[in-house]
Specification:
This protein has about 260 residues and is an alpha/beta fold. Helices cover about 20% and strands about 25% of the residues. It is built from 6 helices and 15 strands. It is globular, with a radius of gyration of 17 Å.
């Protein structure tokens, strides 16, 4: 059974952290509707969704991916690079504790889950404005005990590693090579996003379907040409907060 933790959109979302995006007016009511549609899309793909209540005073709290990393053996509460996001972790730790033992990263580490891409036993971690070397080292110490291999990846020009690349399954990775050092991904087949859609690399494969923003139809066509089904969601307001489809859920499995 595939599960997901999600959290409702905060009414304060317009005060979100931004690093590379230009601040735009966010329609909060529309963002909330779009997030509900996103949750319904996950459910339609067979995911059991555990929805947490809004955190009205934490603008970025809907983006649950960043404070929490979950693998089969444990859950790791990160230490986000954006200090304003660190209070988000407490409720997520409580929610995941019924499914996994919980560990915590500590200072001087900074690390956000958007910088962590897993492909089997390989864990690629972006060295970014939000994740530092101490964070990568602490994560490696937690995960390598279980047999995972951590690979640092330099990130330039975007917020997180998964802004620039995400797994498509079957040994493929969707990528924008302009934003990362692709060398650590050399053993995988790299599928480039459409040149007119540089932000299209953040996708979420669930079963045989790739969930992605409706804003990138050319890249969607490239994915369909690989023989994969594509399900799109309109997340235009969430994208103004420098988000995409992986940001708003933490996926994990349980025994059937």
């Amino acid at each position: 059974m595939l599960h997901a933790l999600t959290r409702a959109v905060s009414r304060s979302l317009a005060a979100c952290e931004l690093t590379f995006a230009v601040r735009e007016t966010i329609d909060i009511a529309l963002a909330q509707r779009q997030h509900r549609d996103y949750v319904r899309a996950l459910e339609s793909l067979g995911v059991c969704v555990h929805s947490l209540a809004e955190e009205p005073d934490l603008p970025d709290a809907v983006f649950v991916e960043d404070p929490l990393i979950v693998v089969e053996e444990l859950a790791i509460v990160t230490h986000p690079g954006a200090a304003s996001r660190r209070p988000e972790a407490e409720s997520l730790a409580r929610a995941i504790a019924q499914f996994r033992p919980v560990r915590n990263l500590t200072e001087p580490a900074t690390l956000e889950g958007g910088d962590v891409m897993r492909i089997g036993w390989d864990i690629f971690v972006g060295r970014s404005t939000r994740t530092n070397d101490a964070g990568i080292c602490q994560l490696a110490a937690e995960l390598e005990t279980w047999g995972y291999v951590v690979h640092p990846v330099d990130v330039n020009g975007c917020l997180h590693l998964k802004s620039a690349c995400c797994p498509l399954g079957d040994g493929r990775v969707l990528i924008n090579r302009e934003w990362i050092d692709a060398a650590p991904l050399g053993r995988y087949e790299l599928v480039d996003v459409h040149t007119e859609e540089p932000h299209a690399a953040n996708v979420l494969r669930i079963g045989d379907t790739v969930l992605m923003p409706a804003a990138f139809p050319r890249t969607a066509d490239l994915i369909r040409a690989l023989g994969l089904a594509v399900r799109t969601v309109d997340i235009s307001e969430l994208m103004k907060a420098e988000a995409a489809v992986t940001c708003s859920s933490v996926l994990f499995s349980t025994e059937p």
